[in-house]
Amino acid sequence: MNTHFLALLLFLSLNAASFSKTSLRHQVLPLHKKSYAPILSDQDVKIFWLENDTFHINESYLKTITQQQRAALGYITTFVGNDCDWDGDKKTDESNLKCKLLAALDLGYQCSEKHLSFLREWFKGDQKILEDLQTCKRTPASANIQDSFIELRMLTVDNTITITYSAVGFDFNAKHTWKWTEESIFTFTKNEIKRTGRKNIEGGFN
To answer: pLDDT tens digits for 176-185?
Structure first.
């Protein structure tokens, strides 16, 4: 296993406790016209998490999700590391980077046509998301500068999806680390989805 990835796993494990369930507990109010009581993230479904130096995926739950949920998870997963490595030898065009959560969502390789075309179709009415997708990058777990999820959770109420995640970053060259917790809120219809809210809950550069 790559030494950078081993170091990242060690760093993640040491910090996982600080991103426990209590650090994610907060109130979420869906951003649409109906009125709801505040929702605790204790009701979220854990999708992806680090435990005992191993990344885990709630694969049984992912088999039940809607296309809108798949799109929301796929977008968030595009921009944070999720145990990515080359599928076989690295191709010259870097087109075979396989990421664990992205693969579980059946979205193919990172930044592939299968990956991006699916997201573009569902986010067709969200110009900011479409612009973000143009900056899709391929970052393997062996990279000198990288980040990774510690935990990702999802809550769906009516036509609102809330995704909350904690992540850490590591610059092996500068020996610099950072960590943060973030929330994104999406609203959807039968044919499309948009991000309607985003906020940093805690964290920043160390």
So the answer is: 889 999 999 9
